[in-house]
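Q: Structure for this?
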Amino acid sequence: MADSEPRTTLHNHIRRLRFENGEITQEELARRVAVTRQTIIALEAGKYAPSLPLAFRIARAFGVTIEGVFQYEEPDARGGR
Amino acid sequence: MSQLVPAQKTAWLTLAAASASILAFGVLIPLVGPQAAQAAFALLCVTGLGAYYFRPRKGDDTPILDERDRLIESRSQVLGFKLFWVVFVGTCMSLWALARYGWHQEMVSVDLLPGLVMGGWIVYAIAHSVAVLAQYGRSQADGGQ
């Protein structure tokens, strides 16, 4: 079955925000937002796009809006990845 | 191994146990016959030790499982059951066709039933474990989609 909806990409600034907020470790951020450290690693590497509640928790952990952490990139018109 | 999440460790343990049991089954067949050789599948009980990886850890208050782990587990279970069903139905129909038109028998041994169930479980366990490892290792964004 063909995928009619182009795939989207989500970028984030978690790594930069960690260092701008007192060099929070991945472990500490994981504890604050109640996920495993491996999930923080996957998020920073762009391997995982979080659920909306987790995105809110991460944004609040840094005291910024969701847009301050995550950037949604529109897929190109051809539906490329 | 320290960077692996519990689900990855469990998947590797399951793959190792399944491989060992299949190997032992193959080795035992010429020695004790196919019926007694099925005892080799008792090795699969080792997979139960995977629960050890999910124990609470002292001094670590991060969760053992989170939404990403649950998503990967859910997808892996679906894939495992789909593959199990395909193999199970395919094997049943093949046996029926073989017995009916190949061997010209209208009955098959009841001893095939535990073999089918055990084989199906191994197919599920292997497919589930491979899916878990592949999803933790893959590099494309996948969350919530």
